[in-house]
Amino acid sequence: MNENFQTFYWSKLDNVAKLYALVSSSKATNVFRLSVKMKDMIQVDLLSEAVREALIEMPSFSVRLRNGFFWYYFDMNLQKPRIRKEYTYPCSKMTKFTNNNYLFSITYYEKMIHLEVFHALADGAGATQFLKVIIYHYLKRLYPELATESIVIGGEHSSLPAMDEDSFLKVKSQAQSKVIPKITMAYKITGIKKRPQELKVIHGIMSAKQVVRIAKQYEVTVSSFLCSILIYAIYEQNYKFNQDFHPIIVTVPIDLRGRFGSHTLRNFFSNVNVTVTPGPNLSFDDLLKDVSNQLNEGKKPEVVNQKINDNVSAQKNMMIRFVPLGIKNMVMRHIYHEADKGVTTTLSNLGRVVLPESLAPYVEEMRMMIPVTPHQPIRCGVISCNDQFVLTFTSSLEETDIQRYFFRFLKKYGIDITISCNEEFNHEILF
C-alpha cells in the first residue's frame, strides 16, 4: 500500500458534497457518468489492474461515506473495487453494495468504459482526471511500449493535499451573505413519464471544430451557443403548447479551478442560472445575445465569490451546523426539492479533454451523462476529445421532440451529426 494512501484516513466533505450527501435519493441520484470508447474491445483483467493503480495515485477516490452525529464524512476504504459488465440504466442511485462502499463504479461493455461518480465525491473535472489516469494505466498494460509515457494528475505542481483540499474555503467575499437564497419558480418540461429509474439516452456525435466555428461566427462561447439552442428548442417544442408561463431557467455549471489556481479533485464549481421569459415572437439571435450576456455576468468574480460565500456561510451557520444529521436530512431534502422547482434543465459542458499524444490514437470518443431530477426530466451533458464532440441528452420522458429540434437546429449550420441511443427507435426521425 502506498505510504501516502495510508495517511489519508478521514476527511470532511467539501461545501457542495455536504449537500449531495444529505439530499440524494432514487429520484435525484446525483450520480453522473463519464464514458470512454476505446479502439479495441475491453480486457477486464487489465482494467481492474488499472483502477487499483489509479486509486493508489489518487487516494481521495479511495474513500467511503460515513455518517457522524452532525455531518457525513469520508474515511479510507480498503476493499477491492468491483469491475462489472454494464447491467443497468446509467446514473442509478449508488449504494454501499454498488461497488464495495466506494462512491464510484466502473462498468464496461464491448469497447466502452463507464465511470459513474456520486457527486459528493467529485465534480466532472475531478472525475475526468481520475478517468484519464485509469485510461493511462489500462493502455500502458495493453500496449507495453507506452510505458514510458507519463500523465500529469491535477496539475503540474499539485500535491496530494492540494488535490484533496476544499477550495471553496479559499474564496473570499466582502458582501453580506444570504443563508437562504430566493427561489424563482421555473417552467417545467412536460411529457409522458417513463417507468421509474428508466432513462432515455441520446448521444449526438459531431466534430468539435465545426461546433467551435459556428460559435465563433456568433462571437459567443460554445456553452452560450448550446444553451441558447436548448432554450429555443424547449420554447418551440414544449413551452408554446402549455399554460405554464414561468420563465425557462437553465443552470450552467462553471469550473473554478483555473480562476482560483486550484488543483483539487473534489467539487469546485459554481452555477450560473440563465433566465428567459419568452415572448410570442422570440428570435434566436436576440435569445443568443441575452444568454451570452447572462453567462458573462454570472461568471464575474464578484458574483461567483458572493454565491460561494452564501453557501459556505450557510454551512457554518450555528443553527444548521449543530442540528443532528437525521433532522438535517429531512430539512435539506425539502429545501433541495423546492430549489429544484427553480430550474427547468441543466447544461453541463466539461469542455475539451486532452490526452497524452501517444494515448490519443487508442481513444475514439468520450461521453458525459448527468442524471435527471423530479423537476428536470431532460438534462444535457457535453464533452469533447480528439475532435469528437459529444452532446448527450438524458431524459425520463418518452417524447424526443426537444432533442429532435435541437439536433435539427445544429444540422442547419452544416454540422454532421451521428445519433446513438440506448433504446431502439428510428434515428431518422431526428432529422
Q: What layout of secondary structure does this protein have?
A:
Layout: H1 3-7, E1 10-12, H2 15-23, E2 31-38, H3 44-57, E3 63-67, E4 72-76, E5 83-85, E6 104-109, E7 112-118, H4 124-142, H5 160-163, E8 200-207, H6 208-217, H7 222-237, E9 248-255, H8 257-260, E10 269-276, H9 284-298, H10 301-316, H11 318-321, H12 325-340, E11 345-352, E12 363-369, E13 378-385, E14 388-395, H13 401-411, E15 418-421
Parallel strand pairs: 5-6, 9-11, 11-13
Antiparallel strand pairs: 1-4, 2-7, 2-12, 3-4, 6-7, 8-14, 8-15, 9-10, 13-14
Helix pairs in contact: 3-4, 7-9, 7-13
Textual characterization of the structure:
With 431 residues, the chain is α+β, with helices and mostly antiparallel strands. It has two domains: 3-170, Chloramphenicol acetyltransferase-like domain (Chloramphenicol Acetyltransferase), CATH 3.30.559.10; 200-430, Nonribosomal peptide synthetase, condensation domain (Chloramphenicol Acetyltransferase). It has 13 helices and 15 strands. The protein has helices at 3-7, 15-23, 44-57, 124-142, 160-163, 208-217, 222-237, 257-260, 284-298, 301-316, 318-321, 325-340, 401-411; strands at residues 10-12, 31-38, 63-67, 72-76, 83-85, 104-109, 112-118, 200-207, 248-255, 269-276, 345-352, 363-369, 378-385, 388-395, 418-421. The protein has a seven-stranded mixed β-sheet. Strands 5-6-7-2-12 form a five-stranded mixed β-sheet, covered by helices on one side. Strand 6 and strand 7 (112-118) form a beta hairpin. Helix 7 packs across helix 9 (284-298) and helix 7 (222-237) crosses helix 13. The longest helix has 19 residues, at 124-142. The N and C termini lie far apart (53 Å). Residues 1-6 have low confidence and may be disordered.
